[in-house]
Amino acid sequence: MPYKTKGSRLVNEVTLGDGYPLSSNLKPLKVGGKTSPIEMSAPYPDDSVKARVKVNGNLEILNDIKINGTVTATNSSINKFQVQGQYEVYGRYGSLNTYYVGNQSFGTSVTEGDWTGGTKYNYAQFTATNDVKLLGWKFHGAFSSSVDWEMEVWHTETPADGESDPEEATKVGDTQSVTPTALRLYTLGQTGLSYSIPAGDQLYVLTRYTSGSGTKYSYGTVGFEFSY
Q1: How far apart are CA 169 and CA 18, in angstroms?
Q2: 102: helix, coil or strand?
Q3: Long-range pairs for 91-95: beta carbons < 8 A, 24 or more residues apart
Q4: For the chain, which domains are there?
Q5: What is the pLDDT of residue 134?
Q6: In the chain, how many H helices and how many E strands?
Q7: What per-residue confidence (pLDDT) applies to 74?
Q8: Which terminus of the chain has fewer Cβ atoms in its 10 Å neighbourhood, N or C?
Q9: Can you tell me whether residue 1 is helix, strand or coil?
Q10: CA-to-CA dists, residue 166 to 100, 116, 157, 158, 202, angstroms
Q11: Partners of 150 in the beta sheet?
């Protein structure tokens, strides 16, 4: 069966660019004179610049892929991962303007010394096993009372063995606030962060109410997104 031609050329003839030789500049492969999504270039003679293949579009791979080198992701989730907090964000709040984790009180301001005694370590939401960057976090849950609430994420630096409190405690990002209808579901959190957390350090979600009085409660969970 003869090949299909158009003039003197095959209709599916594959050429590089406009017919020039392969060089260190990317040139598209053309099929039947039409530009394909694939571009190619040759390496430098001394191999200081590697050969390249570029795909302008989506690439679908139906089997295994082996990579000897570095994968660089741009506008991608390839190096991101998400985790749910270790504990529910359940809190019992007994005093106005006072920060809590669970039923543990921090007072109206927070310092590393507030962790002294160890009971608050029960409520760490995340402990880093490797160096990571926090990209964002999200709480989803409800509150027992229709008053003003605030929620913050705090980072504690790992103390040396035998110490009683963290080396340092730092608020991460911005305070999130809500004035909810009691026992209705709400979402709070922050994205767009790039906050470094060294291996061994921890994250805590601190909550307080800033209007009203009496004992109040929160119910919910928190999730975090990280990159390496």
Answers
A1: 62
A2: coil
A3: 91/207, 91/217, 91/218, 92/215, 92/216, 92/217, 93/207, 93/208, 93/209, 93/215, 93/216, 93/217, 93/218, 94/215
A4: 9-55 (no CATH), 80-227 (2.60.120)
A5: 96
A6: 0, 18
A7: 63
A8: N
A9: coil
A10: 17, 8, 5, 6, 10
A11: 177, 208
- Using one digit for the tens of pLDDT, what is the confidence trace for 177-222? 999 999 999 999 999 999 999 999 999 999 999 999 999 999 999 9
> DSSP label at 227?
E
Q: Are 141 and 220 in contact (CB under 8 A)?
A: yes
- Report strand pairing: 9-10 vs 126-127: unpaired
CB neighbour class for 204 (10 Å; exposed up to 12, middle 13-18, buried from 19)? buried
pTM: 0.69
Question: Which residues, 6 or more positions from 177, have their beta carbon under 8 angstroms from its beta carbon?
Answer: 148, 149, 150, 151, 188
pLDDT at 166 over 70: yes
Share of the chain above pLDDT 90, in %: 52
Provide mean pLDDT across the span 115-128. Answer: 90
Q: How many of the other CB atoms lie within 10 Å of CB of 58?
A: 6
Q: Determine the Cα–Cα distance for residues 175 and 29; give it in Å rounded to an integer.
A: 53
Structure confidence by residue, pLDDT tens digits, 84-113: 877 678 899 999 999 999 899 999 999 999
Any idea of the CA torsion for 170, 172, 175, 181, to the nearest 10 degrees? -110
Q: What is the pLDDT of residue 14?
A: 81
CA 41 to CA 119: how far, in whole Å? 61
Tell me which residue of 203, 172, 176, 174 sits closest to 187, measured CA to CA: 176
